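Example 3.
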Amino acid sequence: MFELTGKTAIITGASRGIGKAIAMKFAQQGANIAFMHIGDGENAARTEKELTALGIKAKGYECDVSDFDAAKALVDEIIAEFGEVHILVNNAGIIRDGLMLSMKESDFDKVISVNLKGTFNMTKSVYQHFMKKRRGRIINISSIVGLNGNAGQANYASAKAGIIGMTKSVAKELASRNVTANAIAPGFIATDMTASMPEKAREAAIATIPMKHAGQVEDIANTALFLASDEAGYITGEVIRVDGGMAM
Ligand code: NAD
């Protein structure tokens, strides 16, 4: 079940956190991994080593997903080097929180540009490849904040809601080509991103989770593996919450 041997996955933002857990999970199931990061060389080198130790082909690339030309050139390079790409996971994301009253325009633009436009850039870069091969899996990491909104995250919520709209649009465009596009909406997951939150905000967030604890990166990786697998071939345009009940 959930076998990925012989498949290649591109995973953005996989030097650490959720992206790394997805990369490790896919590699354990036999997939080759090309992953991207920005400014995180030390973690990326460690991740590449840990992936390669699993006996698959793995390579990390420093590339800004918000730069269309760079993303496209890298995807072409990966296709040339790995032969074929079967799975794209758009996971790279950032936060620049603040109430709308004090949110700088540059913080809005930056979050949209990495989280939402980055997802567009990467998806567009594999689109034709998937279409021609008549198969492919696109898995976009959204957030429950994209479903429910969140005070202090107008930029991030807009990007994550936009990702859901993009996922469903691409799912409709590519369904007849046997390409699926789905989104995962994580709740509160223990990573560097959430560790950077003020202690009080972290405690307040956890208090709203019916299961009363943060999720682990593996919870998201398990869902991504399912969506990437042959077993999920008839699921497209779906948004799966993985949040301990936080947004129900
Ligand atoms: P993280 O900060 O630990 O890791 C982010 C990764 O993205 C890193 O590898 C970083 O190098 C990469 N990255 C950032 N900007 C990039 C860019 N411009 N180009 C290429 N790579 C870039 O984050 P995380 O907590 O693991 O989150 C991963 C994803 O999950 C994000 O999209 C985030 O919004 C989403 N998410 C996280 C949570 C949570 O609770 N941690 C909840 C909901 C959604």
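The chain has a mean pLDDT of 97. The pocket of nicotinamide-adenine-dinucleotide is lined by residues 12-19, 36-38, 40, 64-66, 91-94, 114, 118, 141, 143, 186, 188-189, 191-194 (CB under 6 Å).
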